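Agenda item 2: zinc ion complex prediction
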Amino acid sequence: MGRIPDETIQAIRDRVDLVELIGRYVALKSAGRNHKGLCPFHEEKTPSFNVNADRQIFHCFGCDAGGNAFTFLMRHENLTFPEAARELGRQVGVEVQESDSRETGLYEQLRELTLEAKSAGLGVVVWSYPRGSGISKDGETAIDVCAYAAQIAAQLGAHFIKVKPPSDHIEQDAARKVYEGEQVPIATLTERVRHVVQSSFDGRRIVIFSGGGKADDEAVFEQVTAIRDGGGFGSIIGRNSFQRSKEDALKFLSRIMDIYK
Ligand SMILES: [Zn+2]
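Presented output:
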């Protein structure tokens, strides 16, 4: 899976006729510039599946499936983004050449989803959690890796970036030289949060921090305080709130809200 150049994607977009494409799989009836049919993604007897010829998007009011030609083909034919792009390219006579990097292939998919969400007026939340064989377990929350991941999410169009609270571990030797050389302060969680927020277009994107695994209350409050002081926008609290009684959870969450106030 590789990176497909933007111009190629755009050329395919320009040439594909979504009504024609979907019409091969779904019997569509036209109602002006809108076309209606039975949704291929859920069982139904009355049509709630719409294809908009002007905007080249589809939407189902029954199951909320929606997207463009790429996402339709991906979902209908169970293809990855590059596979769908190659198939559409073949159909409309645009040659798809890819560089071979798995990461950029994934970036391309995320960018496509981001554009899709934005075209529908939706905000985009990106869970920026680096993982995989290229980094160590400690590296997943290393400050250099977290800051870079947040930066990439911002570049790919995220409005909201969700990251894990970074540790003071530095994964890459090359990065260590820079952090030490430039004396980037990363000793405390507050400093590390500030660094990650700065890496997200200097705080012009909303950066939220995951609450992590079940921890003792004071440790969570301490972490939340550090996130607040570092300019973080908030925390996502999951297990730490629902693995307790309702009354206790509400008390716990209001303490956290008080810290952010
Ligand atoms: Zn549907």
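Discussion summary: The chain has two domains: 6-100, 123-260.
Owner for follow-up: CH.
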